[in-house]
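Suppose you are handed only these lines of text.
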Amino acid sequence: MSVDLTAARTLSLADHTVRELNAALHAPDAERWEVLDPGGRHAIAAGLDAEISVEVAGHVGYYCAGMNQRASVHIRGNCGVGIAENMMSGKVVVDGDASQAAGATAHGGLLVIEGNAAARCGISLKGAEIVVGGSIGHMSAFMAQSGTIAVCGDAGEALGDSIYEARVYVRGEVASLGADCVAKELLEEHRLQLGELLERAGHGDLDPGEFRRYGSARRLYNFDVDDAGEY
Amino acid sequence: MSDSNGTPRPGWRDGLRESATFDRATLHEIRRAAREGIYDIRGGGAKRRVPNFDDLLLLGASVSRYPIEGYRERCDTDVVLGTRFAKRPLKLDIPITIAGMSFGALSGPAKEALGRGATAMGTSTTTGDGGMTPEEREHSKTLVYQLLPSRYGMNPDDLRRADAIEVVIGQGAKPGGGGMLLGQKISERVAEMRDLPAGIDQRSACRHPDWTGPDDLEIKIEELREITDWEKPIFVKVGATRPYYDVALAVKSGADVVVLDGMQGGTAATQEVFIEHVGIPTLAAIPPAVQALVELGMHRKVQLVVSGGIRSGADVAKALALGADAVSIGVAALVAIGDNAPELGREYEAIGSAAGFYDDWHEGRDPAGILTQDDELAARLDPELGGRRLANYLRTLVQETQTLARACGKSRVQNLEPEDLVALTVEAAAMARVPLAGTDWIPGTEAR
Ligand SMILES: Cc1cc2nc3c(=O)[nH]c(=O)nc-3n(C[C@H](O)[C@H](O)[C@H](O)COP(=O)(O)O)c2cc1C
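From them, the structure of the protein bound to flavin mononucleotide can be written out as follows.
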């Protein structure tokens, strides 16, 4: 089915089911979509795989934009657990706050949360970029493998526990670092990467030099008896 | 002093007596722990004896029950999995599937052999921790794609390419534990599929990253259905611990199929203490699982697939008689395609083991080319031959199952029922909830 680049569709979840919405979005006949009355429903705009843009006028439940590919999804409200979980590509923007596990295991694409994100933001991240305008909760970036998380506010306890090669930048305070996560020097390379990411996320006004960088000490990569207590 | 087969061992003298408490394996383990300072890791399932299907017998026909004529009268073996919600349920010719085993643990040729054998017999294979490889998709007509806590390689394209989705909550070998793949097996290809640096020890998460508890699971399943347009059956796999509750919660969460893996179930690598001491035997797990399904009015509507220590058609028949719709095999399939083969005895000895005993699968040096990521070793396994051997083995299991079902007068293997079974031991009678042979006593319930 070809996508009409000029067409726009509006669909209200007061009149349609999530199934009807997603079925339409999985075989889109228009480029721009507006979803009204989301009412906190789950799995809204999950599994998209097309260069379309979807604007959701209100709060969404769990797994909104789950496994997103290519699409651009904008939530004009707050979101429940697992926003953009396992995203592969595309962009997801949340105007409000996000619940737990935002961007969990995401492989690619950009997730922007303007407000705060709760616990486990970027858990097991696998390559995507996450920018949070506010603060993030505890155990964020747990086992994060690759990709970048930039936090303009503070980070909760046990940041980056058991982190692999993901990069974490925090502008404010970090309550505590998790096992094998350490503060690292912000080199020019990181300043450039972060500046460019903030720019794309609409936070270009912030100075990347104000952020601190965190990552893996790589001490737990291969088992060593003397580190056993850390596991 | 003699080993368990009664063979005297070197150093034996009259008067030496081995301790039942501190036997040789125990002494060896104490010394190993003192040397290395880390728990023992190995593959396979529990080695200790636990009550199992050998403790049950089928009754066969008698004056009041008449049998089905072997080779003449039909005894159907097909099964449909995922009839509850999925638009495209799996239609399998035989009630024996190949369990999830990861690429990473297994070599590429081993995965291909499993796909070829299963496809030849009209049954399914399953991916594992580490994602779907193109080879296994190509060689498996019916492929179940696992969604594990690690989410290695998880992507929506493979989700849509799969024929069913299996949400893995636990495994019988290690309920409550995550996966483990040590540095030796994290080759470049495995590392890339998992987004990890090559050569590091990798411990997969034991909890899903984006949901906890049955209420969340229900929403997660709904998301998976939405992503795949409600086409694919959704399996939920649990390790056998509290099967009555876990099966009920899986059904409540919207599963099409429940996979129940007993404590004897194999694993690629985990702590020995986990394998031997956590979970309940397959035999003990089936009756409470079936009870939960019956009470919910879902027996045969949500299909039950049972795994953990299935070796023969007798095991298959007994699992079906207890109420399973199908069974799944792991270790037996690996043995069928050539693992631990006696012909490789010298080579197993060269790596400090012996054919039939090799279980250091995490080290990745399997001379059979099955549990390895070493290209040279992997190239030793001929996937076509392995596939033929697996098909032969499955064919034999099916014939044996049919033989027993016909003897019990069943024209369909799933028509086997608890009434066809008795137990040899009091323990097995209590666990399987069938009478002790020659009595009408089912320990733990009133006499029937
Ligand atoms: C080598 C190997 C790798 C395995 N990998 C996985 C896996 O990735 N995911 C999973 O759910 N179970 C895994 N299992 C467990 C099997 O799916 C299955 O539950 C078990 O093997 C059944 O018991 P059996 O081996 O006695 O037949 C693995 C088992 C083996 C032997």
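What can we learn from it? Chain A has two helices and eleven strands. Residues 32-220 of chain A form a domain with the Pectate Lyase C-like fold (CATH 2.160.20.60).
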